């Protein structure tokens, strides 16, 4: 056992916080960053115990896969002198168990804790993580009321393979794949968990229901004298009901608890996100939050009437009903508090917009009817917008003195953002002065002298201030950076995955670089600005299967709804008077295909169909559906190019079809990533991933169908390599050095003779990588930005294109010399809102093709009265 003052690597032990079967937890000081942490160390007695090590590693993987304000943050995972450890966020507060020792909680406190716990569970379940040991000891309530979920040591990282549920994990002393054993804490287990049966996310809902019951009743719902009797009660008995006239526990609360404690998992919530919404709504009503729309008022008033009706005589209740009807009638006829004024009337993409220094004029960027981006200015007294004398550019920010920060020559990149060269120009127009390449977002500091910049470099996204000095970096992406009016802090959206709009609000101190997260992680968030008071950050975001609306996020993390409307709303800017500049957006990804000179056919399924592969004969497309239609999940489909209904193959991000069309490759993009082999006819999916690799960016079949080429990375490396792997379960063998630049949208075209893989090298130029692992050959004459499409049947020619061109010019080149010319042009009949093709695939003989397109259509509005 370590004592205060002991040194454990870079950590100085301060005090012992707790000790259990799975380790010692110490308060420790990180001497490198001078911060205090909770240091969890596996005890020496368990260092050679395989199951204990696996559970410890499972906790590290599960907790580090989540980035949520209600989940304890893992700073570091490692091993010092053979001893595994976790360095975690240090929480000052009490466990829920300590709080319950003095009895039940108030309704307000219980609902607040419950809502935070379920928000964390919903985020975990969305990433395929089931906690499986939720109990009061694993919930820490900080002094300011923030709840943190602890101990993912029993958590299971899961994915959808052959079924929609996952095998039950075993007891700590059993092998990791042994079925039929019991795991968890008795009293909070679900009936299926108590029986040793299959466990999935609804088991966590049951444990939460038991917690919620205990917070209000002051006792667990199934506590019995012995362990065996408790297990029996969980399986067979109903919890003792609350007193029927208990004024603290009304019908909505009872209904939520009853549903979570249902014996049959199918009778619980179909999605934990739905449970989170019910609790958030209940918390808002209980805490008397601001009501910002008639629809919300009409939800609250009838529920309040039902509560009053139970307590009043009949006559009094009828009087209340009559008064409420009068009030609702007044509400429905009063003048609306929010007014919208449409600013643009053309068809195309509005990518950014800002209020000018006068707070009334608007400067915005738009690409109308398929034309390049232009910067426009709209004065309030004029009905028309005026194009500024600038080259194709996107406006990023306006300084107080009128200088424009622009993206010159912007190009659209997934999942719907732009990148280009940062340049400065006066708002009267002129030739911009170029400053920095690969920039995506920027904003002026408080004095208008320096810029806070978001840019891409080395496969990461950097936040720089001033330009060139990195304050923060991520393997995901950052967006919509905005500086506070006092110039001290910058707010931005942090997106953990490079291919998703899922993310959360971050706040960073520009002097110290200290960063904090505000509010929950949103399934989709796009748009951010400070409100005039500087006490809130306004964003446009949405939950699962919801339209994007406008929310306010306080500096404490509290969220409130500001307004909603038909379609997705994207917040662009807020003026000093509180007027909001926003865009109503229609965005979707589609697929078009054709054979020979035949007319193109659109085979889009729902709202976000992204092409993965085209069968060699051109009769089927493999694609991924990932938008609102599937709840922002990833589902792989196979569809005939004649337009027949698609067939769902399973979960994941589609990659490639086998040469015989009988199987497909897909990746589960949630960490730790997994490579799956899906059967296109019938049968379960097979996990063919290796423990050697932790990420899979792209994968293709070899021509013989017996091996696959993978672009991925090992946990110990920061850059991807190419690997060759035998099917079904061979170990990957590296065939390239690190530095492969490949995204989830790109393929890995293998020559028909099986000798070469075309991929982007460290300089982002196409190179040929021999499958025998020998020296790669750079194709001369091709600049960065070109992507490989496929090969000619004789392996003599390579087809390449530039993804952000419209029309797309597919070039056929000799890979030895780089010589060649345009082979085919692809152009949609309606170019409005389209900024290139993210994916193109060809048939084996080159006569057929398929491509994915992304269409972004916006209408610009001015909203007054949001508050």
Question: What would a concise description of this structure say?
Answer:
With 867 residues, the chain is of the alpha+beta class. The protein has ten helices and 55 strands.
Task: Give your account of this protein's structure.
With about 850 residues, this protein is of the alpha+beta class. It is about 15% helix and about 40% strand. Strands 17-18-19-20-21-22-23 form a 7-stranded antiparallel beta sheet, with no helix packed on it. A hairpin with a 4-residue loop joins strand 3 and strand 4.
Q: What class do helices, strands and sheet pairing give? A: alpha+beta
CATH class wording of the largest domain: Mainly Beta
The percent of residues in helical segments reads 10-25%
How many domains comprise the coordinates? Answer: 5
Shape: globular
- Please summarize the sheet with the most strands: 7 strands, antiparallel
CATH architecture of the largest domain: 6 Propeller
**Count of beta strands:** 55
How many H/I helical runs? 10
Distance between the termini: 55 Å
Strand % is 35-45%
Return Rg in Å. Answer: 29 Å
If you average the pLDDT, what whole number results?
82
CATH topology call of the largest domain:
Neuraminidase
Biggest sheet strand line-up: 17-18-19-20-21-22-23
CATH superfamily of the largest domain, please?
TolB, C-terminal domain
